[in-house]
């Protein structure tokens, strides 16, 4: 029993690492008002650059740097095109995602099934000797430990710092932000890039330890879309987005276990289970917004329980998300 | 304290501000009055740095200042509260106050909280710092914006239509706080079109008309003079000669509705056959909403609508149309016509009935007939985008069936020149005369309503202020009703 528990907990923690980086990066970008739909392709491309760079130089550090650079460049392109040239965020992001994926497969041909360097575990002294918790929580590598700290760090950033406040204000109402002396486009661009860098780390986490190596498929395909859904699921709150990532990772691990335990149920059932849940949460977001708009106070008492649940699960998106700011 | 000299603002050939001079004394509440489009808001946006002036000079305390951005205006001590609050709906009240304040890397909310408490108790407001503006009323959001501007050291406070959309109680609180600020030496500029607000609150008033200052008054005001200055035309009313109203056939019973801009108070009305009814009022006073509600385009909250004995309440647009109720939207290209389609495509869409294929030749000959009958300058194959506004409007009217029972027209002559306007009204009047249909229209031009309508309904703040026949009408009464003073019914 203990072994299973350790397996589950450590699997959830390790498995959630890349999606956590990607989803929190996307949260940053969306809080500033830009939807970066290129997430999925960007993850794959940065996974490749991490692997390729570290394979060529045998340096993990350079691998991670290359991935971060890739993420930054992709999002820089998206940011400049959407913010300064007013290209549609959705259209460009989508196309960019497909483009990055193909680019990754094309350049990745040379690295198929090669043995590269891998990030090794770094058990934390003393803590890793604790029963159950030690092997499941404190025996991961440094990137995973960083993913623990990331939600806290980003929460402090968005709630306690001046830059965080400016990020929220340009996502809420760039015109008002402009009136208060901010430069909405520059602030948005910075946060899109920061989001891209975090996504890059997520991609590197795939190719440098979680699904080490390069192949076609690499194994991280689709994660970006999940991360996008998780941002909505977590209603743009760092901790809830992180919680969503852990739940998603848990569902994936359970899928694997259930597959062993209930071998007569088709494996696909457990593999796709997380997706309908995501759809359900999106529908809920829509209905809460709609109800609170149309029948203020009138029907709320009647469906109190519904509203309380819905309110817990959903908070409205940044008011100016996805819209173009035209000064 | 503030002096504006010879301010010009051109938008292409349109002169929004044409040589405006204005000076505001310290410690006074100064009203800026005028109709929609008189250039009040443009002038104030120039003063607060939101739009750039074409030419002119601005002085603060005798020194010329450069106000090219809102931040520079704030530095000069000028702050503006917009009609739509410039805030962040989903950030807390406190964070709204914090955004844009100078601070270090980490923000400290203590100082902002202190400011919030101090100014709130000073001015008689109360706030929960953790709530967010999305859950506040418009009045409260104004108060928040006011606190923010004052906490940044603003000495000249500009308010754009602050009493639109707030409750009477909030209005009292607002006026109390404004008087208090004036006593403390702040200058207040109140942009308004409401006579009440001006006479009860302000020390001085400047009236603008068509981009120019048309009058300057100081306390005590005479509403009569102010109105005369705002609506100088008044005068000639063409009495519609052919008014022979039939029986009431279209009924609105205790109808309420709301849009994002205005809440319609319960209204009961009827329209008669062969009648042309004009809806007047300042923009956003409820006349546009009533028109849309009556035409079945917007939904009503409570009440009932019926035509003859047929109830129409909450029925589909199609049900309205099959009972002979038609609506022509004001935004011709956005809601009325479909950009990128030709005239005959439109006719095919509207008139071909339930067939799988459109009959090209029949459609084209019908389109040609419309073009001829309505004097439209176009061919069946021209794109609707290429038509002038007047021709677009004529084409829209031609698409309506020949004998509608009632037509609702939203600003039918907006942006049209004199000839096009006359042509449109000729078409409509002929319809009324021949088929006995009723025409209900809204217009921002009071003169137009007085010229063509038999009956005029005036709205203010979501309420019906006046319902009278045009031939026994005193234009001053309309002015009063527009500015929110209720007139007895006929």
Short description:
The complex is a heterodimer of chains A (327) and B (490). In chain A, 72% of the residues lie in helices and 0% in strands. Chain A is mainly alpha-helical and 327 residues long.
In the sheet with the most strands of chain B, the strands line up as 6-7-8-3-9-10
What name is given to the CATH topology of chain A?
ABC transporter involved in vitamin B12 uptake, BtuC
Radius of gyration of chain B: 25 Å
Category from helices, strands and their pairing of chain A:
mainly alpha
Supply the number of structural domains of chain A: 1
Outline type of chain B: elongated
Q: Whole-number average pLDDT of chain A? A: 87
Oligomer state equals heterodimer
Largest sheet of chain A: none
Detail the poorly predicted runs of chain A.
none
Tally of DSSP helical segments of chain B: 17
The geometry of chain A reads as: globular
Helical percent range of chain B? 25-40%
Strand content of chain B: 25-35%
Q: Give the number of helices of chain A.
A: 14
Overall average residue pLDDT of chain B: 83
The main pleated sheet of chain B reads as: 6 strands, mixed
